[in-house]
Design the sequence.
C-alpha cells in the first residue's frame, strides 16, 4: 500500500465525486494498515484487522462491523458527560495560574475525554504520568509507521506506546472497561469475537482509539484560543455574543445555544480548522473505478484529497487565503470567497463548494466524532473566553508557527511554547461554571 501509486485530488468537484464513489473505494483497508503500523500490532492481530472477510466466507470485516458501533450518534452520547468534566476542570483552575497553553488545553481535554470514554478506571487516571507516554508515542507516530525496527529507530515513541499498551492491558484484565462508554464495551466484545484475546494487543487497540478521542480536538482548541486571545477586538465581540446568546444563568453555558445562536463563534471554529486541520481522506482502490465519468483510477492504488492545497487555494478563498479571517464562515457553513479588499460578502453568493472544506473528510467515512468534537471545542473555548483574561508571558508569543509536516494525518501542532497567565475576570470571579448540552 505504501509503495503503490497515489492520485491526489485537488478540486472540490472531484472531492465530491470521490465522496460519492462506490464501495470499490474504501477507507477501511487504509485504517487497518495505519493502525497495525502505528501501534505495531503483531502479525496475527494485523491480519485479523486486514481480513476483508472477517475470517469466514461471506463474513463481514472487523472494520465494517465497527462502523455500526462507531456512529456520530453513539459518540455524541458521550457529550453531556464530557461537558460535565470540562466544567469541573475549569472551576479547578487557580486564579493567576501560569501555564504553557498547549499542554494546559490538551490536559483538560484528555482528562475529560479519557474519563468519558474509558470510564473512571481508565489508566490515565491511575497513572498520572501515562499521558506523557501517550504524547511521546503520538509525537513519533510517523517514524514508528515508516521506520524499520521502530523499537530502535523511534525509541522514545516506542517506549511511550508500550507503556500505554501495558497500562491498558492491565485495565482490560481487571475489566475496567465495564464502566466505559458503551461503544468501547461493544468494540471490546467485537475484538474478542474476532479472536483478539491477547491483552497487550487489545491494549494497543485502545491506545489507537485514544488518538481519535484525544489528539485533534485538543490541538484545535489551542489554536482557537491563541487566535482569539491575541486579537482584543475579536475577543470582546465573541464575549458579547456568547454572553448574550448562550449564558443561561450564573455560570450556566449551553452548547445548543453556542451551536445555534453564536454564528460568529462557529465561524471562528471553522476558520481555525481550515487553517490548522487540512486533513486527508485516503481511499484504497479495490477495483478499477471511474471517477466523475472522467478519470480512471486503477486497482491497487490510493486516492487522497490534497486538503492543504484546497484549504490554501487563493482562487477559491480569495487573496487573504493565508490569514485568519474570523468571519469567513459567517454567511455560509462552507465558507465564502473574500472580496479583493479582504471583506467577506454578506450573502451566500460567494459561498464555496461544500467539498472544499476538508477538516472532517467527507462521504460515508466522514469523521463520526465531528459533533462530539464541535461540542467539546466550542464549549471549552467559550467558558475560557468568558471566565479568564490571558496574557502571553516569559517572552513567548501568541500564534506560534505550526508544524506543517504532520498533515494530513493530524491537526498541526505548535512548534514553540506559548506561556500564559490566567486571571479570573472580576465579573465572574466567584462563579462556578457548568457546561450543559
Ligand atoms: C477537531 C477534531 C477532529 C478532526 C479534525 C477529525 C478528523 C477526521 C478525519 C479527516 C477523518 C477521516 C475522514 C475521511 O477519510 O473522510 C476522521 C475519521 C475518524 N474520526 Fe475524527 N476528527 C476529529 C475528532 C474526532 C473525535 C473527537 C473522535 C472520537 C470521539 C473521532 C473519531 C474518528 C473515527 C473513529 C474515525 C474513523 C472513521 C471511519 O473509519 O470511517 N474524531 N476524523
Sequence:
Amino acid at each position: 500500500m505504501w509503495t503503490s501509486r497515489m492520485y491526489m485530488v485537488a478540486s472540490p468537484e472531484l472531492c465530491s465525486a470521490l465522496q460519492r464513489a462506490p464501495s470499490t473505494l474504501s477507507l477501511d483497508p487504509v485504517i487497518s494498515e495505519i493502525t497495525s503500523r502505528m501501534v505495531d500490532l503483531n502479525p496475527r492481530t494485523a491480519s485479523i484487522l486486514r481480513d476483508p472477510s472477517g475470517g469466514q466466507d461471506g463474513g463481514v470485516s472487523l472494520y465494517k462491523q465497527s462502523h455500526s458501533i462507531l456512529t456520530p450518534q453513539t459518540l455524541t452520547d458521550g457529550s453531556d458527560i464530557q461537558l460535565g468534566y470540562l466544567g469541573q476542570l475549569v472551576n479547578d483552575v487557580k486564579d493567576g495560574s501560569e501555564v504553557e497553553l498547549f499542554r494546559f488545553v490538551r490536559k483538560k481535554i484528555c482528562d475529560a475525554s479519557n474519563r468519558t470514554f474509558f470510564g473512571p478506571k481508565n489508566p490515565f487516571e491511575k497513572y498520572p504520568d501515562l499521558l506523557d507516554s501517550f504524547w511521546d508515542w503520538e509525537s513519533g507516530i510517523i517514524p514508528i509507521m515508516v521506520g524499520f525496527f521502530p523499537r530502535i529507530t523511534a525509541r522514545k515513541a516506542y517506549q511511550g506506546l508500550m507503556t500505554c499498551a501495558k497500562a491498558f492491558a492491565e485495565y482490560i484484565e481487571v475489566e475496567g472497561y465495564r464502566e466505559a462508554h458503551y461503544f468501547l464495551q461493544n468494540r471490546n466484545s467485537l475484538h474478542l469475537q474476532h479472536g483478539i484475546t491477547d491483552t497487550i494487543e487489545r491494549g494497543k487497540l485502545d491506545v489507537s482509539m485514544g488518538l481519535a478521542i484525544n489528539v485533534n480536538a485538543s490541538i484545535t482548541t489551542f489554536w482557537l484560543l491563541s487566535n482569539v486571545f491575541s486579537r482584543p477586538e475579536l475577543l470582546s465581540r465573541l464575549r458579547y455574543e456568547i454572553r448574550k446568546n448562550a449564558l443561561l444563568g450564573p455560570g450556566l453555558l449551553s452548547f445548543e445555544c453556542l451551536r445555534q445562536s453564536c454564528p460568529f463563534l462557529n465561524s471562528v471554529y471553522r476558520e481555525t480548522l481550515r487553517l490548522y486541520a487540512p486533513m486527508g481522506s485516503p481511499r484504497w482502490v479495490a477495483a478499477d473505478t471511474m471517477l466523475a465519468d472522467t478519470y480512471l483510477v486503477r486497482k491497487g492504488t490510493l486516492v487522497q484529497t490534497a486538503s492543504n492545497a484546497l484549504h490554501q487555494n487563493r482562487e477559491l478563498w480569495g487573496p487573504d487565503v493565508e490569514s485568519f479571517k474570523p468571519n469567513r464562515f459567517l454567511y455560509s457553513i462552507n465558507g465564502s470567497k473574500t472580496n479583493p479588499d479582504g471583506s467577506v460578502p454578506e450573502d451566500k453568493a460567494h459561498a464555496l463548494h461544500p467539498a472544499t472544506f476538508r477538516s472532517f473528510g467527507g462521504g460515508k467515512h466522514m469523521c463520526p466524532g465531528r459533533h462530539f468534537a464541535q461540542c467539546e471545542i466550542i464549549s471549552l473555548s467559550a467558558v475560557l473566553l468568558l471566565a479568564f483574561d490571558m496574557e502571553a508571558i516569559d517572552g513567548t508569543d501568541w500564534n506560534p508557527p505550526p508544524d506543517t509536516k504532520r498533515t494530513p494525518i493530524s491537526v498541526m501542532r505548535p512548534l514553540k511554547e506559548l506561556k500564559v497567565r490566567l486571571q479570573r475576570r472580576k465579573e465572574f470571579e466567584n462563579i462556578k461554571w457548568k457546561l450543559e448540552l
Summary: The pocket of protoporphyrin IX containing FE is lined by residues 27, 31, 70, 75, 212-213, 216-217, 220, 277, 279, 281, 359-362, 365-369, 372-373, 411 (CB under 6 Å). Residues 6-436 form a domain with the Cytochrome p450 fold (CATH 1.10.630.10). The mean pLDDT is 92. The radius of gyration is 22 Å.
